[in-house]
Structure formats: structure tokens, C-alpha cells
Amino acid sequence: MRSKGSPERTEELTGPVALGRLVAELAARAQPEPYDLTPGGTGRRRLSEDAGMSVWAVARMLRGETLPKAENIGGLAAALGVDEDLLLDTAGYRNRPDRAKRTNQPVVSIAQPPSPEAIADMLGITHSFVRKMLISSIAEAVRLQREADQNEDGDAGGRAVAR
């Protein structure tokens, strides 16, 4: 039963509640035999066995209280007969725009190495503080490597230090 003010479209939600709803819906339509998730039914036990999860974890997931461990998503997807990506996206373990950005990466050339900013883009780092830290760390590592490469033997000999 839907309460007033609850979302009409669950596909826009991510996280434990959305995953619980999706899994319950998929379990009811599973083939060759649907999982009976009604009180007193054996569906939770069967689903937990088929997915390789504890009955307790399945029950909490179905109630929208918690997400399964990421390593259990594959077993859950197999038990429900769906693609693992659907469950990962619904759980919020990754988001679709991020995944789309990462699948269309440019070819990296040794002759023209990517900039620290391009590396942050390739990794999907968008948080401003984390991005600044990564870019400055990469720039410093490149500087130290160049300094070390200028030494005759290629060994910095302890002279290259962070500035």
C-alpha cells in the first residue's frame, strides 16, 4: 500500500529502499518458480540460499533497511535472472552517468601522456577537494620523477624531496 506523498516512480530512486522494492518485484516474477515472500512463505529462505546470502540479510534488504555487500550482488542477480548492472545501479553502488563517462575513455598515448586533470576525469573524480588533492599529487609525482630521471643513474639518491 502506497502512503500519501510517496514517490510514484521507484526507478528514479537508488539505495536500500529502491533495491528492496526492485528485488521484491523481481522475486515475485522469477522463473522457473517465483519466490514467495509473503509471511510464512519460504521465498526469503530460498532466495537467500540461491543468492548466497543469509536469510537475515535478505529480509533486511527486502525491507529497505540495508544494502547487500557488493560481492553478493552477482549471486542475487543470478538468482533473480537479471543483469548485475541493474542491481548495482539501483543500489547506488555506481551511477549511470559515471559508468557512461568511463566506458568512452580516450586512448592514452605514451608520446602524449594525459594531464593530471584528464586522469581525474578518467577516474570520475568530481568532488572539488578530492580532485584538487589528486591533481596536485599527480603533478608532484611527475615533478619528482623528472628530477630523478635527470640524475645520471636514474636514482634520486635521496635528493628529490617533496616541496
Write the layout of secondary structure elements.
Blueprint (H helix, E strand, L loop, with lengths): L15 H14 L13 H9 L3 H8 L10 H8 L3 H8 L4 H8 L12 H7 L5 H23 L13
Helix pairs in contact: 2-3, 2-4, 4-5, 7-8
Q: Can you tell me about this structure?
A:
- By secondary structure, this protein is mainly alpha-helical.
- The chain starts with 15 loop residues before the first helix and ends in a 13-residue tail after the last helix.
- It is 52% helix and 0% strand.
- Helix 7 packs across helix 8 (128-150).
- The chain is elongated, with a radius of gyration of 24 Å.
- It folds into two domains: 10-97, 434 Repressor (Amino-terminal Domain) (Orthogonal Bundle); 105-150.
- It is built from eight helices and no strands.
Judging from the principal axes of the Cα atoms, what is the shape?
elongated
The helix content, as a percent range, equals 40-55%
Q: Count helical runs.
A: 8
Broad CATH class of the largest domain: Mainly Alpha
How many beta-strand segments?
0
Task: Describe the main β-sheet briefly.
Answer: none
CATH superfamily of the largest domain: lambda repressor-like DNA-binding domains
Number of domains: 2
Give Rg in angstroms: 24 Å
Q: How much beta, percentage-wise?
A: under 5%
Distinctive features:
163 residues, mainly alpha, 434 Repressor (Amino-terminal Domain), 2 domains, elongated
What can be said about this structure in brief?
With 163 residues, the protein is an all-alpha fold. 52% of the residues lie in helices and 0% in strands.
